[in-house]
Amino acid sequence: MRFYGDPVLRRKAKALSVSDTLKVPGFEAQTVREVADTMLETMFEQRGVGLAAPQIGLSVRLFVAVEYEDDEEENEGQDEPLRSRVLREYVMLNPVIKPLDKKKDKSYQEGCLSIPGIYEEGVPRSKRVNISYTDLDGVQRTLEAEDYLARVFQHELDHLDGVLFLDRLPAEVTDDHRRDLLKIQQASKNFLAHLGAWEKEKHLRENL
After folding, report:
1. What is the spatial distance between Cα 134 and Cα 136, in angstroms, rounded to a whole number?
2. Active-site residue identified among 156, 172, 199, 201
3. Is 177 exposed, middle or buried (0-12, 13-18, 19+ CB in 10 A)?
4. How confident is the model at residue 26, as a pLDDT?
5. Span 141-152, average pLDDT
6. What pLDDT is recorded for position 144?
7. Dihedrals φ, ψ of 10, to 5°?
8. Coil, strand, or helix at residue 140?
9. Average of pLDDT values for 142-162?
């Protein structure tokens, strides 16, 4: 997982193809399907509802998301495996969202796996959207989503454009969390330093 302060979370991700081979930092090269499976597992481990590729260090336009049996999956049934409560999984390549209403909804609380422990209400999102994307079989698909699922899709698409949910709130909201954000940022910096040292050592071993 990548956390607040990691530069990859601020980059505009690049389009990808189903046939691409992806290199997740710290891992061997993988197919898009393998990366998507890893992302889903990571999301379930973190008890999330969605995860975008930049959150695992890949700046490509890919995200995964799920619908659960209830909207409070992160707060209920903590001893029950989340996979047992999944209604539907989504893997979306190169998603494009079109709002289907002009009025913004601010009624849900949002959080982010890359900003752990911080939750806020009032993030303006379209209540109903149309989303087009490519699936893992290379098929172009379109669907409509509303309410909570529409919010999840918009949150994940933001990640592909380098936008975090706090960016959509007044600056004073971020200021209120400044101390916690600095701690997350420092932990992120330490992780990147360790990852860089590991990859450098790996490169040296492979070239001996």
Report:
1. 7
2. 156
3. middle
4. 80
5. 96
6. 97
7. -110, 0
8. strand
9. 97
Q: Kindly write down the DSSP assignment for every residue of 60-111, as one continuous string.
A: BSEEEEEEESSTTTTTS-TTS-GGGGEEEEEEEEEEEEEES-SSEE--SEE-
Distance of CA 15 to the CA centre of its chain: 16
- pLDDT at residue number 203: 66
Instruction: Measure CA 126 to chain center.
Output: 18
Global pTM reads 0.90
Residues 6+ apart with CB under 8 A from 179: none
Query: Does residue 156 have an active-site annotation?
Result: yes
Mean pLDDT (the chain) is 92
Q: In what order do the strands lie in the sheet with 128-134?
A: 50-52, 62-68, 86-99, 128-134, 140-146
50 contact partners, CB below 8 Å, separation of at least 6? 43, 63, 64, 65, 66, 152, 153, 155, 156
Q: How far apart are CA 64 and CA 74, in angstroms?
A: 16
Q: Taking the mean position of all CA atoms in its chain, how far away is CA 49? A: 9
Question: Side-chain half-sphere of 193: how many Cα atoms within 13 Å?
Answer: 6
**pLDDT at residue 162 tops 80:** yes
| 76-105 exposure pattern, b = at least 16 Cβ within 10 A, e = fewer | ebeeeebeeeeeeebbbbbbebeeeeeeeb
Task: Summarize pLDDT for 1-57 with one digit per residue, the tens.
Answer: 999 999 999 999 999 999 999 998 888 899 999 999 999 999 999 999 999 999 999
Q: Do 32 and 16 touch, CB atoms closer than 8 A?
A: yes
Residue 151 — φ and ψ, nearest 5°? Answer: -65, -45
| pLDDT tens profile 66-81 | 999 865 444 444 556 6
